[in-house]
Amino acid sequence: MRPVSRVDAAVAMASPWQSISGGITAPEGFLAAGVASGLKPSGKPDLGLLLAPEAAVCAGTFTQSVVRAACVDLCAERLKGADGRARAVVVNSGQANACTGDRGLVDSLRATQAVADHLGLDPDEVLICSTGVIGVPIPMPTLLAGLDPLIAALAADGGAAAAKAILTTDLVDKQVAVEADLGGRRVRIGGMAKGSGMIHPDMATMLGFFSCDAGVDAAVWQGMVQRAVQRSFNAITVDGDTSTNDTVLAFAAGEPLVEDQLAALEEGLTGAMQHLAQAIARDGEGATCLIEVQVEGAVDEAAALQVARTVCGSSLVKTAVHGRDPNWGRIVAAAGRSGVAFDPDSVALWIGSHQLMAGGQPLAFDRSAASEVLKQERVLIRLSLGVGSGSGLAWGCDLSDQYVRINADYTT
What is the pLDDT of residues 226-282, one digit of tens each? Predict the structure, then answer.
């Protein structure tokens, strides 16, 4: 079993945002719950619910895979049809309900209808996310029987229970909450996520849920969420595989902000998403460390992100980090196949504080000291391309034999 690393440390945020407790229900007016309904044979929590205040808007990003669960399409269609209006999302853990034929949609519709009936909402205001084994449908009698205790448990301090209920192979729950003073009023952002395997940049590579107690136009909020996802969940990788159910949903409801406060709000949302994205990468199946790749000197941010993601996703880089081997050739080789054009003679490279290349040429360095850097909880790799001012970050983890053991007998 991979070592457990808690991810609830203070969020490194730019001013004016500060880390607080409370998770997804830290923002005013949001309720959440999580219960063990019997969907998992382990008896662990497996059914979660988030309820947003009236007049909430919701933005979403979804997997780009052509093989996707019915709940993904249902969420996307409902958000589009209601111009981003939604009040609740129910999450079942244990069954992905993907590749289950017509039953996948029928069961998703039944579940959201039942939640809507319990809460007195229109079914189109209720979204659903599922996570677990692909090809396994939801045991609907079990889920439906679990709704009474789930809704009874809805509370303003229910974020922690909900965060536990959405997990699968995760070793730790993943929560975040931040607040700032914007224009003389307190604004809070909360979040929770799950993810440990099948993680790779492709729209939204896991399940993530966010809340905000500021009012924002639906179209503006959707743009904020898409940009924040691009710089967070689309900048992580564990194993190069994406899921059939990848979804990020972000709700906002409250007193509207003025236009000049929106940039600060997006800064807070991006920081909160990056915190959870890093937590997912650190909790990667079989991982022993978090890898952060900083790319600078690219032609633009998109190019820098592409190089950073490619380096983070390289199996050879990941295994070298696991073996504490400062084999820097693997890093520049991965950058070279990223699809981004740059001059190899301008490249500079660092592992931690140790510079290994300058002007495309290798430098003498202390190999033992560089190896020690690779033993740290957080491994920093910095690459300068020397062709522009674009920069970007990506996060991943090392690749160990434990990853193979965890996934070799996942269903047996």
Answer: 999 999 999 988 777 777 899 999 999 999 999 999 999 999 999 999 999 999 888
Write out the residue limits of the CATH 3.60.70.12 domain(s) in the chain: 18-282
Among candidates 16, 336, 57, which has minimal Cα distance to 220? 57
Residue 172 has φ and ψ, to the nearest 5°, of: -140, 150
| Secondary structure E strands in 63-184 | 88-95, 126-133, 174-182
- Tokens of residue 86, six digits: 């939604």
- Is 205 a catalytic site residue? yes
The one catalytic residue among 100, 168, 205, 247:
205
The CATH number fitting domain 18-282, selected from 2.40.50.100, 3.60.70.12, 3.90.76.10, 3.40.50.300: 3.60.70.12
Whether residue 141 contacts residue 13, with contact meaning beta carbons closer than 8 Å, is answered with no
Quickly tell me which residue has 């099948």 as its tokens: 198
The CA-CA-CA angle for residues 51, 64, 109, to 5°, reads 40
Q: What is the pLDDT of residue 290?
A: 93
H-helix or E-strand spanning residue 367? helix 367-373
CATH topology of domain 290-408: Ubiquitin-like (UB roll) (3.10.20)
Q: How long is the chain?
A: 412
Q: d(Cα 388, Cα 61) in Å, to the nearest integer?
A: 30
CA pair distance 251, 209, nearest whole angstrom: 8
Residue ranges, comma separated, of all CATH 3.10.20.340 domains in the chain are 290-408
Amino acid found at 236: I
